[in-house]
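Hi L., both proteins are below.
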Amino acid sequence: PGPGDGLRIVATGDSFTFGQCVNDDETYPAVIGRVLGAEVVNLGVMGYGQDQALLRLRRDGFPYEPDVVVFGFHSSNMRRNLLSFRGYGKPRFELVDGRLALRNVPVPPPESLESWWPPRLWNHVLIHRDSRLDRKLQKRAIEDLSRAIVHQMAVDVQAAGARLYVVHLPHPNALGGAGEHGWPWMQKFCEAPSPAPFRCVSPVPRFRQIAPTPEARRKHFDCHFSAELYAAVGEVVADAILRDLPVELRPGPSGGATGP
């Protein structure tokens, strides 16, 4: 479809957005598309940091001219933002005078390590180096960098004429409000002043209903999310989008955009 043919959504993030452990039609972006009768492009990539999610949105997402951008926020990705190597070389941002500065670009290709013997050992040396660097940085610095990336994404999405929804993808330990980056922490993160608007969405209440006990959580979080949890994420995000949609983009009985 071309511009104006209906609601178009781009999702970006890591393996939770990609839909690790479930079929393509069971991912939360796929569920959003079915609920809203929308075209959805899933740009999630396993192992991505938030920095890479932003860069891929810029390169591959905005050309689709989306009405909505959905960003899957998993707390593990905040630490990935610090790395210049994770399995392969990757770009990363640094905060310089409060602004994002892109580093390690162009990214060294895998072939650049072939001169080392053995290459795999050198890969582990780099991973260990970045992991040590990670531990030395204060928690505040990690959070500040993540916040700057999300705020820059909001600026970019607004400039593209779209709406940004940041979906909290919780660790099972965070369902009760415990855990390093549970929903109370995420609420504060989302309420911080931002140069452009975005809406935060959380499936935590639904997750608590689906997996109320430690035994149930082990089942539903055995491999990323279960299909039922992915569906809950998609339905919660779709409901938030639907409440904000202008009348002309709301889905009708046939799944297309109609009037009220």
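That was the first. Here is the second:
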Amino acid sequence: MNQNIEGVIVPILTLFDETGQLDAPAMTSLVDFLVERGISGLFPGGTTGEGLLLSTRERQRLAEITVEAAEARVPVIVHTGAITTAETLALTEHARAIGAQAVAIVPPFYYHHSDETLLQHFEQVAAAVPDFPVYLYNNPAVANNSLSPALVFNLVDRCSNIVGIKDSSGSIDYLAAMTSLRGGAFNTASGSDGQILAAQAIGCHACVSGNANVVPELVVSLFDAASAGDLILARRLQRQLNKVRRIVEDGADLSLFKAIVVRRGLAGSSVVRAPLREMSSSQIENRWQALSRLNLVPSPAGDLLSEKEAP
């Protein structure tokens, strides 16, 4: 069992209306916007999507909206990780029931767990949905628990429906170890936008890019160039993306990401879920102007404006 997703997977923003409620029409518009620009998958409920700030029912509704909006044009991998095994199971079973193509699961967070405890947790969830693809999600900086290579190897041996991993550790060595699993068929995705080119070079199949919410054309172009082996173009595009990353700080303030989406002509607001705070309008304007000066923001016609930079 393998999804074999290759390309740019977007940890899609969760858009709220001005009252702080999920904005289904705005979410549908964002899904259409991303799919039309060539992304290869959607990942609702992750860090960029404020997933862990939502109630269980909101997480379920977000998954439903995304699956409905995607209309099977691209796979939807729902993030179902939670602090308890019971909630992880409930969210995972719900994702399968609504027609998602897979789930991704971050380790239970806050408390530190041994490899043996994490093995039992993931094995229990995978066994509950034996016909459904499960991705591991390694993000030790926020989960307080790392999926060690030994643990991943053990899980892959025990659970045939654990088909891949998203790694946000920032370690190229870790990603390289993951790409060797199942004879290279283990679906491996890098979670750092600064490593898209490097991760492609060692055999990763996909990237999960938060910045692709706001500059999907650039991220897709970079991934495609790296996949095609066009190193001159890929290096230039990686440098351009790194400049974007410095301006938007990789989504450190999610209200900025949302404001840029609105500036690009989509419906929605910059409202974020408390305790997150919204960036001031003047700060947003300054960042938008800095981004525009790179000439990387697509024109009204939708064409990517290339930065004038030598290869």
